[in-house]
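Reviewers of the previous submission asked for a worked example of the structure-prediction workflow described in the proposal, so we include one complete record here. The input consisted solely of the amino acid sequence. No template or homolog information was supplied to the procedure at any stage.
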Amino acid sequence: MKLPIVAYGDPVLRKKAEEIDEDYPGLKELINNMFETMYAARGVGLAAPQIGLPIRLFVVDGSPFGEDDEDGPGDPTVKDFKKVFINPMIIEESGEKWAFNEGCLSIPDIQEDVLRHPNVLINYLDENFEEHEVELTGLAARIVQHEYDHIEGKLFVDKIGPLKKAMLKGKLDAISKGIIRVGYKMKFPLQKKGR
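From that input alone, the workflow returned the following structure tokens.
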């Protein structure tokens, strides 16, 4: 089932998410719905706060970045990068930060260059509650850092300069009011009733 994606301005996107356990109600169905929602919106990651749930859960599938396209060859390290992250904890970020143009399903039609570390060491539970500790690099590390920010109550626009953010204020306000067209279901915090 495709779920509505929460838009910029909703307080749930600013909450630090809570850990869950194996008894979280409907977890398997929730994970399946998150993947379906993410694919329908043509995303590569989706965090639970983006569907209104302040829990430490996100899903990723970097395969679109693994494909060759008109911009050149894809990144083979993310071709098969499909994972579920439950209660993740970033242990270390390392390497010289690099810029990459990021967007977000909760902040449609805005893309900006964001600096992030190229390497990340993360501990997490998978969908079977088995523990993993992995080092990720390149685009896989970036996707995970972006989604991890969501469960920490942070957004990619927090990482851009104040001038750039000021220039985006009108667009961000419009998104929070629902004055935007997207190809997927969204929930807008400030949208007037009857629209």
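The chain has a mean pLDDT of 93. We consider this example representative of the routine output the project will generate in years two and three.
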